[in-house]
Amino acid sequence: MAATEIQLDLPVDMHVHVRQPPMSSLIVPHLALGGIQTAYIMPNTIPPISNVSQCVEYLDQLESLLPPSSDVELIGTLYLSPTLTPAEVQRAAAVRHPKTGRLRIGGVKSYPRGVTTNSDGGIESYDVYDEVFAEMERQGLVLNLHGEVPSDEEKNITVLNAEASFLQHLHKLHAKFPKLRIVLEHATTAAAVEAVKQCGDTVGCSITPHHLQLIVDDWAGKPVNFCKPVAKTWDDRKALRDVIRSGHPRFFLGSDSAPHPFASKMPSAASHGDVQTAASCGCAAGVYTSPILIPLCATLLESFGALDRLEAYVSTNARSFYRLPVSQGSAKRILRREQTTVPSSFTLDAHKDKDDWARDKAQVVPFWAGKELPWKIIS
Amino acid sequence: MAATEIQLDLPVDMHVHVRQPPMSSLIVPHLALGGIQTAYIMPNTIPPISNVSQCVEYLDQLESLLPPSSDVELIGTLYLSPTLTPAEVQRAAAVRHPKTGRLRIGGVKSYPRGVTTNSDGGIESYDVYDEVFAEMERQGLVLNLHGEVPSDEEKNITVLNAEASFLQHLHKLHAKFPKLRIVLEHATTAAAVEAVKQCGDTVGCSITPHHLQLIVDDWAGKPVNFCKPVAKTWDDRKALRDVIRSGHPRFFLGSDSAPHPFASKMPSAASHGDVQTAASCGCAAGVYTSPILIPLCATLLESFGALDRLEAYVSTNARSFYRLPVSQGSAKRILRREQTTVPSSFTLDAHKDKDDWARDKAQVVPFWAGKELPWKIIS
Question: Are residues B282 and A345, on separate chains, in Cβ contact within 8 Å?
Fold first, then answer.
């Protein structure tokens, strides 16, 4: 008999992009809409969040966008770059939320240069960060890795094997800093799953819901499904599904939900009739799942027989790895089996009455737009 | 010292899509514009060209679109489907051009079901075609293979290994019909190049210019570079370049030039502000190279040190394999080193003054739109 209601320890999304104004005012309220209680906020803003004062200011700004009734908590991250010092790591680890007293900055995110959105300031080599990583290890900050190397003709590296080619760096970092908690973000390959399993208890791995669904065929010619790392093969998808179904405690939800204005996702909308611009522009990489996140996760896990692992995937595994408090008392998210349609788009209020062109720049199309989801959040 | 002028035996394009009215009236004159003298026309029209009378009618219609001064000759093909009989193969082989007396139908094209544009009527198994292939072998018609199998979760087949997974069929067909001339169309992988090399002299292979340039990274999020088979890795591209540079006589130009209206290449143009339609539509697969074909080939081959193989690639290898007459007397194509800019788009005359939306449906964006080509056709 299929379940009709599910109670979950309050969900956490350990990898999410909420952007900056005005986009952030549309996106931040979607965290609660999608069922998330704790959101781990990525620092690849423009400019990136590279020090403690920027991070606190950014978190204050984002928290002001939360609905008053919201139970959502935000955890900030810093962007790894040569300006980050061990002293700044100490300062980051000491920041407490003025109201809750909880840790406010959870980790440091590393982007290899040029491989994804706003990663031009990303790292080229990890060797120069030994002292920073050693201090993070002492202070208990997490290192979050975008695990891809740049494409390289000599080494035959493309978007297809960029992740597998990165895994040697994960192993090296883990060997050098065995007590440093490291998260390989948005794993997409069987090789990555295997690598994380082989590491010790200080290495975790986030898996997005869209990578539990998509393969390469789904983004071939479909910009709405194009993201980085790109979705790979059936066997890779099976490895991601299998590790979630196994309930392995170091694999958990990080949605990598990334809102891109429709105009940047679909260049011909931005170009407004200029075919040359449209043809030469690339489509932005990213899939937007925040407003439907937990119902989507329930739907996907049920589709491959892992609904009993939903709480582990969306809450308890990450809470344990990140040392986050479990739900206070009886607080739970409750899902009921009830069909809802994924909205076709979300538009900033201030742009709703504007013309097509202006609206395209303030409009975000979610993953599975227009599809039915069989699960709905009821509290 | 770099060459400043090149004389070529008249070029042939052994794989080209010129579509139907009204698109064909824009496209057919581009064959001459791109430097082609003989064009081998694909039959995946709507409906497909599946018998001799359809093919002759189609060729007549296309020839009426050739400029009066043009030296372009067209060779037709039939679409392989269960309606094709050995008797129809005999009829096809007997068709002569009313003016030149030359063979008018060169071969039969096989599309695996559902893998590319207008392939819904494609084949599922070759076994039922034994008698047709035997008759083609006797009559000297060529079998042109779109060498991909459909994606398959059980077998872990995606767009990435669809070609490599097809090669067993090429070997089987060649073993069964050793005198049947077979062309593996638009090879994209090192595996395909190796497979063709291993076959005997009756197996040839077309290679598109865009696959001599693109890799998977180039179509990740860039609909203008998305085609089937998809471009693969650096090593695959190197294998294609190497075999052209080696001058291997059974590898030759088949552009697979495929004009798609801008609106179908860029769904947001077609959807005209409807983001849900735009997001859910796929982009049409195909790269359009006809109007710049020979200058593009010269540019690419020069870029990887194979300009001395240009004539073999664009003319003599295919003429020999297909038993086409070599240039009559002193007729040559002459290229001069002179920069020209690739037009940003080509638009049907009747649609030039229409609004953005109507124009998008009658407008084709060529490969390398807006880029400079260092070679120009001067006669």
Answer: no
pLDDT at A266: 67
Cβ atoms of B143 and B180 closer than 8 Å:
yes
Q: Before B267, cis peptide (omega within 30)?
A: no
Going residue by residue through chain A (379 aa), what tens digit of pLDDT does each one get?
678 999 999 999 999 999 999 999 999 999 999 999 999 999 999 999 999 999 999 999 999 999 888 889 999 999 999 999 999 999 999 999 999 999 999 999 999 877 677 666 666 679 899 999 999 999 999 999 999 999 999 999 999 999 999 999 999 999 999 999 999 999 999 999 999 999 999 999 999 999 999 999 999 988 889 999 999 999 999 999 999 999 999 999 999 999 988 777 766 554 555 665 656 667 888 999 999 999 999 999 999 999 999 999 999 999 999 999 876 667 899 999 999 999 999 998 766 666 665 666 678 999 999 999 999 999 8
Q: What is the DSSP string of A30-85?
A: HHHHTT-SEEEE----SS---SHHHHHHHHHHHHTTS-TT---EEEEEEE--TT--
Pairs of residues, one from chain A and one from chain B, whose beta carbons lie less than 8 Å apart = 142
E strand map for chain B: 5-8, 12-16, 38-41, 73-79, 105-110, 142-145, 182-184, 203-207, 251-253, 333-341, 346-347, 363-364, 372-377
Residue A160 near residue A230 (C-beta atoms within 8 A) = yes
Rounded CA gap, B322 and B315, in Å?
Answer: 11
B268 reaches A (C-beta below 8 A): yes
Residue B27, in any domain of the structure: yes
Whether this model's ipTM surpasses 0.90 comes out as yes
Amino acid letter, residue A101 = G
- For every residue of B107-128, DSSP letters joined together read EEEE-BTTSSTT-TT-BS-SGG
Q: What is the total count of domains within chain B?
A: 1
Q: Using omega within 30 degrees of 0 as the cis cutoff, is the peptide bond preceding B325 cis?
A: no
Q: Are B307 and B336 in contact (CB under 8 A)?
A: no
Determine the residue type at B47.
P
Give domain status of residue A346, yes or no: no
How far is the C-alpha of B342 from the C-alpha of B345, rounded, in Å? 9
CATH of the domain at A212: 3.20.20.140
Residue A36: count other Cβ atoms within 10 Å of its Cβ.
27
Residue-level pLDDT at B121: 65
Residues ≥6 apart with Cβ < 8 Å to B359: A273, B347, B351, B352
Per-residue pLDDT tens digits for B116-172: 776 666 666 798 999 999 999 999 999 999 999 999 999 999 999 999 999 999 999
Helix and strand totals (H; E) in chain A? 15, 13
Residue B303 at interface with chain A, using a CB cutoff of 8 Å:
no
The first and second tokens of residue B340, run together, are 């020209």
Is residue A338 included in any domain, yes or no? no
Identity of residue B15: H
Compute the distance between CA of residue A43 and CA of residue A51 in angstroms, rounded to an integer: 10
Question: Which of 119-148 (A) contact B at CB < 8 A?
Answer: none
Q: Which of B191, B225, B233 is nearest to B209 (CA)?
A: B225
| Residue in A closest to B281 by C-alpha | A222
Of A152, A234, A276, nearest to B370 by CB-CB distance is A276
- Residue B105 inside a domain? The answer is yes
- Cross-chain Cβ contact A262/B275 below 8 Å: yes
User: Domain of A307?
Assistant: 10-332
